[in-house]
Amino acid sequence: MSGLYERHLAVSPDWLALYYRHPIELTHGEGRYVWDADGNRYLDFFGGILTTMTAHALPEVTKAISEQAGRIIHSSTLYLNRPMVELAERIATLSGIPDARVFFTTSGTEANDTALLLATAYRRSNQILAMRNSYHGRSFSAVSITGNQAWSPTSLSPLQTLYVHGGVRTRGPYAELSDDRFIRACVADLEDLLGHTREVAALIAEPIQGVGGFTSPPDGLFAAFREVLDRHGILWISDEVQTGWGRTGEHFWGWQAHAGNGPPDILTFAKGIGNGMSIGGVVARAEVMNCLDANSISTFGGSPVTMAAGLANLSYALEHDLQGNARRVGGLLIERLRGIAAASDAVREVRGRGLMIGIELVKPGTDEADPEAAAAVLEAARAGGLLIGKGGGHNTSVLRIAPPLTLTVAEAEEGAALLADALRAAD
To answer: In this structure, are residues 183 and 220 in contact, taking their beta carbons and an 8 Å threshold?
Structure first.
């Protein structure tokens, strides 16, 4: 592996991060397991950053890809595309947005970029509200609305971004409040902020912050925000790149935990729908989606092969009730992890929903984030045969756990035991 690593370093940017002191090359996978070039097997609890949603080498998806590739691989959006129309119809219905229109992209970054284009054009404003600790992608516009310093390499932007409270429940100035008072304080902060700025185009928010460490507000926060936003004509963009397709178990979309005042105006998605194929997209009500007054296409968005994969993957997820499996197995897993955490002074909190779980690490006896401990647990888990991720706000001190949604009870128990060993080894 050292030879490939040296070749990687010679041709890749310094900022293209790799996990582990001795990076691994994954060569194949099956179900919830992957193998590296040295033949080591790992239980995959990160799924290519929440992207391998159903399973590795899922036969239904690989068959759909192969059959479509044998017919035609590419045509672009300049031609009618049956798989794209069929997938768009299903997503429009599932989105909960009335009179929905769907535009496909190649990534979540591009989806959020498109949502910002729509919102600013529709509202004739370049001002955006975003959440502190947020992450929305790697493009110039997405970086400019990211509220996480570790993932924001520049402050230059054509957008004016204003950050509001609420994305992190257990840290910050409102952490000690009850849920109801927390929501009221965040709404008051939003009201105050809008009293000091010009017209705002949209609020963009992740229902559960992904890169930020799987943090989330109390249920109903964005419904309360919506009352304020509607009075000002401000759009709500729900970034569902990591929370969509049933991963949270309780809901198909993350916004449904905040549904008191209806669906968002714009919804963005990506990652899990393609099960590893490059699919992103935007759903918006027709009035918003159709507001652009210039030509626009997508060369690779809606590719026949990726759309065929998305259709097969979505069908599998719905027919096998993977949302229900995420709720049941995820509930068991989070309880096991909380039991393990109770024996460790280094764990501040175990949080999450369904198969989207974060374990925040701190220096024992303090509330201070401990990124070194997170890195050590990541290494120890890999050595034991478990792949996990990490993230978090001010410091990368949260272990991110997001297995494929077909995870079995036995695999959840296996992963919890491996993680317990890794936490002990890192102490």
So the answer is: yes
Within 13 Å, how many C-alpha atoms sit on residue 112's CB side?
A: 28
Q: What is the pLDDT of residues 40-91, one digit of tens each?
A: 999 999 999 999 999 999 999 999 999 999 999 999 999 999 999 999 999 9
Contacts of 19 (CB under 8 A, 6+ apart): 378, 382
Tokens 């309880």 belong to residue:
335
3-class secondary structure, 410 = helix
Angle at 239 between CA 207 and CA 334, to 5 degrees: 40
pLDDT digits (tens, 9 = 90+) for 359-404: 999 999 999 999 999 999 999 999 999 999 999 987 889 999 999 9
Under 8 Å between Cβ of 161 and 148:
no
Which residues, other chains included, contact 294 with Cβ-Cβ below 8 Å and sequence gap of 6+? none
pLDDT tens digit sequence for 262-321: 999 999 999 999 999 999 999 999 999 999 999 889 999 999 999 999 999 999 999 999
16 CB-contact burial (10 Å; exposed 0-12 / middle 13-18 / buried 19+): exposed
Q: Kindly give the pairing relationship between strand 127-131 and strand 202-205.
A: parallel
385 in Cβ contact with 43 (< 8 Å): yes
pTM value surpassing 0.85: yes
User: Distances in Å between the alpha carbon of 84 and those of 11, 67, 202, 302, 339?
Assistant: 35, 15, 28, 6, 45
Report the distance separating Cα 110 and Cα 239, nearest Å. 12
Tokens of 353: 């929903």
DSSP 271: G
Residues with Cβ within 8 Å of residue 101, at least 6 apart in sequence: 92, 283, 284, 285, 286, 289, 290
DSSP of 39-86, one letter per residue?
--EEEESSHHHHT--S-BT-HHHHHHHHHHHHH-S---TTS--HHHHH
Per-residue DSSP letter, 91: H
Amino acid at 45: F
Cα(287)–Cα(292) distance, rounded to whole angstroms? 10
The alpha carbon of 77 is separated from its chain's Cα centroid by a whole number of angstroms, namely 26
Residues whose CB is less than 8 angstroms from the CB of residue 4 and which lie 6 or more positions away in sequence, other chains included? 25, 37
